[in-house]
Specification:
Oligomer: single chain
Distance between the termini: 28 Å
Helix content: 40-55%
Largest sheet: 5 strands, mixed
Order of helices and strands: HEHEHHHEEEH
Number of strands: 5
Radius of gyration: 15 Å
Structural class: alpha/beta
Shape: globular
Mean pLDDT: 95
Length: 165
């Protein structure tokens, strides 16, 4: 029987795929505030793959902790596809991991950085490839955040399983 496609199931499959390839993982979360890391550490044995996570909720921390371009942040704010990509690359480098995941966006209740509620960017970066997915999500704050967790884990699993990163 196949494993259900739930955040925990996707997290377990992602960790197994990374471990099978001898790769490590790091996470940078703004929008999701640690929920991606929580989904990963809920899986027994996650420590064999997961190096750690950074939750740079404040915009300036995206620059100081992860190396996101300060000019990009000043021009567009934190909710931008290039910010997501730079967060994923930055956490990968900062924590010494092979693969980095990142989330940034607007969960509401109000718009932010000129973006409407539900605008989300999730990114996955590895040594050979990085990809950002743009999401336009509906629902309340909790739903947007939960869907973002599912989406970034799913994107990472897709890229790792297809050996793109």
């Amino acid at each position: 029987m196949p494993e259900p496609d739930l955040p925990g199931g996707t997290a377990a499959r992602l960790l197994a795929a990374l471990e099978a390839r001898g790769r490590s993982l790091a996470v940078a979360e703004s929008l999701t505030g640690g929920a991606v890391c929580a989904a990963l550490v809920a899986v027994p044995g996650a420590s064999r793959v997961l190096r750690g996570a950074v939750v740079p909720y404040a915009t300036d921390l995206k620059h100081t902790l992860l190396g996101v371009d300060a000019d990009r942040l000043a021009a567009s704010g934190a909710v931008h596809p290039q910010v997501a990509r730079q967060m994923a690359d930055g956490v990968r480098v900062a924590l010494g991991a092979d693969v980095g995941l990142a989330t940034t966006g607007v969960a509401g209740p109000d718009p932010a950085d000129g973006q409407s509620v539900g605008t989300v960017y999730v990114a996955v970066a590895g040594p050979r490839h990085a990809e950002v997915r743009t999401l336009a999500l509906a629902g309340d704050r909790e739903t947007i955040r939960a869907t973002s967790v599912t989406q970034v884990l799913g994107l990472a699993l897709e890229l790792v399983s297809s050996d793109q990163i």
